[in-house]
């Protein structure tokens, strides 16, 4: 038996949501993220002859209803809000593949489907031919993560979806993501994180000046040490005169 819980109220960030799917009283899917959709739609121009394109910015509502489904190789999270005017469905797939190191497994976000209603007045103003539309991903392979680990990415990522509304491009903006749809080790506990390339690069950019500073400091210390030892050795050596006439002063 599968249960679902919206724990978004526990997040200190009002834009970040937390969703949990549990099976047999154990967490089988856990997701934390902030999401917003940028949806283009048509309105009449002031002459009521031409069409112009407006843009709706639709955040994922904190009070979203949710459904979830866990499986060995396929999992799913479905969220709906504002009386089901908006529905987001995320599908995940786990698969094995052969590498030079042998067989390995990973999971990925394999499909996104976003249904929206342009007759909903909170975000759509005077849409032409209002009604429901569906924006979907095409051959998606996102958030790829080694099996048994969670995906983490603080940076904002943009995923493009194609809408049934005249093939318009809908943008999904994801940020502050921590997600694991398979192999959760304990109830409400993520596995070790797999950071996205953008976060890895930002982390490197933050630590690189510190590393370079430490290396430079070490080089200076070593150089000063070598100079001090060399100076000591040369000072203690007997200076042999090169001019033969000076030998009479020796002995």
From TrEMBL:
The chain crosses the membrane at residues 208-227. This is Lysosome-associated membrane glycoprotein 5. It is a single-pass type I membrane protein. Its main location: other. Pfam families: Lamp2-like_luminal (PF01299). GO terms for biological process: establishment of protein localization to organelle. Belongs to the LAMP family. Keywords: Cell membrane, Cell projection, Cytoplasmic vesicle, Endosome, Glycoprotein, Lysosome, Membrane, Signal, Synapse, Transmembrane, Transmembrane helix. One of its GO terms (cellular component) is growth cone membrane. It comes from Vireo altiloquus (Black-whiskered vireo). It is found in: Cell projection, Dendrite; Cell projection, Growth cone membrane; Cytoplasmic vesicle, Secretory vesicle, Synaptic vesicle membrane; Early endosome membrane. The keyword Cell cycle does not apply. InterPro entries: Lamp2-like_luminal, LAMP_CS, Lysosome-assoc_membr_glycop. The keyword Transmembrane helix applies. Residues 14-184 form the Lysosome-associated membrane glycoprotein 2-like luminal domain. Plays a role in short-term synaptic plasticity in a subset of GABAergic neurons in the brain.
């Amino acid at each position: 038996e599968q249960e679902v819980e919206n724990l978004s109220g526990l997040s200190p960030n009002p834009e970040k949501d937390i969703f949990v799917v549990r099976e047999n009283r154990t967490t089988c899917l856990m997701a934390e993220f902030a999401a917003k959709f940028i949806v283009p739609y048509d309105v009449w121009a002031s002459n009521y002859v031409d069409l112009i394109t407006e843009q709706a910015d639709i955040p994922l509502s904190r009070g979203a209803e949710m459904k979830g489904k866990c499986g060995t190789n396929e999992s799913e999270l479905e969220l709906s809000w504002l009386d089901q005017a908006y529905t987001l469905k995320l599908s995940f797939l786990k698969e094995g593949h052969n590498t030079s190191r042998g067989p390995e497994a990973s999971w990925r976000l394999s499909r996104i489907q976003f249904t929206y209603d342009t007759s909903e007045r909170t975000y759509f103003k005077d849409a032409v031919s209002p009604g429901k539309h569906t924006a979907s991903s095409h051959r998606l392979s996102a958030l790829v993560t080694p099996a048994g680990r969670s995906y983490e990415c603080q940076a904002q990522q943009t995923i493009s979806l194609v809408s049934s509304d005249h093939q318009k491009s809908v943008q999904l903006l994801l940020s502050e993501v921590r997600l694991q749809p398979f192999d959760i080790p304990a109830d409400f506990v993520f596995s070790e994180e797999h950071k996205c390339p953008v976060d890895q690069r930002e982390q490197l950019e933050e630590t690189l000046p510190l590393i370079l500073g430490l290396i430079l400091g070490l080089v200076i210390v070593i150089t000063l040490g070598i100079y001090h030892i060399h100076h000591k050795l040369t000072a203690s050596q007997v200076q042999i005169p090169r001019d033969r006439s000076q030998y009479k002063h020796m002995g």
